[in-house]
Specification:
Shape: globular
Distance between the termini: 35 Å
Largest sheet: 6 strands, mixed
Helix content: 25-40%
Oligomer: single chain
Length: about 160
């Protein structure tokens, strides 16, 4: 773990904490893990990505864009009990004038799916969007063939 991604106790920096998950900044040292997640073809289909391998260079380009974007707010999702990174989430195309953003989430660790982590992450990020950022409308795109995501979003209030 790089120095800038840890607090004084050696823990990852956490911006938002829930009961079961916590959200912190995306991290360059986690790029190999992010790359593994995004190269899972089952995961790719739920993100509307083309079914093709993504290289480390492409993942680094994604990280560089996300870490500098002023209209995106990306997070790493952690399992709170273990502080293990389990996915990514974020608000994209944040428009402060019109108070809108698009929501995205990926639970990258297959064994962490179906445990309520996605639902809690969605609730935490919606609270952040409406309370901290003062947004009024969050846009969600979900595919009919992703019933797990639909259940999580319904439970979270979409």
């Amino acid at each position: 773990m790089t120095e800038e991604s840890r607090d004084n106790n050696g823990r990852p920096i956490l911006n938002i904490e829930g009961e079961r998950v916590a959200l912190g900044p995306i991290r360059r040292d986690l790029l190999p893990l992010y790359k593994r997640w995004i190269n899972d073809l089952h995961t790719m289909r739920t993100l509307d990505l083309p079914p093709r391998p993504l290289t480390m260079e492409q993942e680094q380009d994604w990280y560089d864009r996300q870490s500098k974007a002023e209209d995106d707010v990306p997070f790493t999702i952690y399992e709170r009990e273990t502080l293990r990174p389990i996915g990514n989430t974020g608000l994209h195309s944040v428009d402060h004038r019109n108070r809108t953003a698009a929501f995205g989430i990926m639970i990258g660790e297959p064994e962490c799916r179906g445990k309520g982590y996605g639902t809690e992450t969605t609730r935490l990020l919606l609270d952040y969007a409406f309370s901290a950022l003062g947004l009024h409308n969050i846009i969600l795109t979900v595919f009919e063939y992703n019933p797990a995501a639909i259940r999580a979003y319904n439970k979270a209030g979409f």
